[in-house]
UniProtKB/TrEMBL annotation:
<protein>
    <submittedName>
        <fullName>Amidase</fullName>
    </submittedName>
</protein>
<comment type="similarity">
    <text>Belongs to the isochorismatase family.</text>
</comment>
<dbReference type="GO" id="GO:0016787">
    <property type="term" value="F:hydrolase activity"/>
</dbReference>
<dbReference type="InterPro" id="IPR036380">
    <property type="entry name" value="Isochorismatase-like_sf"/>
</dbReference>
<feature type="domain" description="Isochorismatase-like">
    <location>
        <begin position="3"/>
        <end position="139"/>
    </location>
</feature>
<keyword id="KW-0378">Hydrolase</keyword>
<dbReference type="InterPro" id="IPR000868">
    <property type="entry name" value="Isochorismatase-like_dom"/>
</dbReference>
<dbReference type="InterPro" id="IPR050272">
    <property type="entry name" value="Isochorismatase-like_hydrls"/>
</dbReference>
<dbReference type="Pfam" id="PF00857">
    <property type="entry name" value="Isochorismatase"/>
</dbReference>
Length: 177
């Protein structure tokens, strides 16, 4: 069975840019999962540092409010991997999940690390390249012309460990099943 992992779609990140196109695609995939009875698991990053964007007691650390009602479960993480020192693997095994679909933020950190960690644990992984966003841009990395989400997807694609598709390909392959 598939499960959707919605990574770090949190109030704090939504305030850092216009991510409505990303959120629309994420919500569309969520609706497909809900309609087919497949689990939707939200992951949120939390930190103890009061100065952090993800301070655990801040209202901004919460899952982005318009998507919160879709959550079957919310798992807190403290590192880029949603699997490291969390109960995500246990939750997925209890649900008999063997295939995770990764969406959310930030492509080059939490989404990438979680996809790799899922593969390492034996899951089939689908990375929805254009239903994944980032608050960073080419200037953040001093690499003119860099498409960060595309780059993260390429790394996973060329590793031959992860199915990398865009939203349209996902809909064509999975949404009718």
């Amino acid at each position: 069975m598939q499960a959707l992992l919605v990574i770090d779609v949190q109030e704090a990140l939504m305030k850092l840019g216009d991510f409505q196109a990303d959120v629309w695609k994420i919500e569309s995939v969520i609706k497909h999962f809900k309609a087919t009875g497949k689990p939707v698991i939200f992951i949120k990053h939390v930190e103890d540092d009061k100065e952090s964007l993800f301070y655990k007691k801040s209202r901004d650390v919460e899952v982005y409010a318009p998507l919160l009602p879709y959550a079957d479960d919310i798992i807190e993480k403290r590192t880029p991997s949603a699997f490291f020192e969390t109960d995500l693997d246990d939750v997925l095994r209890i649900l008999d999940v063997d295939h995770v679909v990764v969406t959310g933020f930030n492509a080059e950190y939490c989404c990438l690390f979680t996809a790799i960690s899922a593969f390492d644990r034996g899951y089939k992984v689908t990375f929805l390249e254009d239903a994944i966003g980032t608050v960073n841009n080419a200037d953040s990395y001093e690499m003119p012309g860099l498409n960060i989400c595309g780059f993260a997807g390429s790394v996973l694609h060329w590793s031959r460990t992860t199915e990398v598709v865009n939203y349209g390909e996902y809909v064509g392959k999975y949404a009718l099943k």
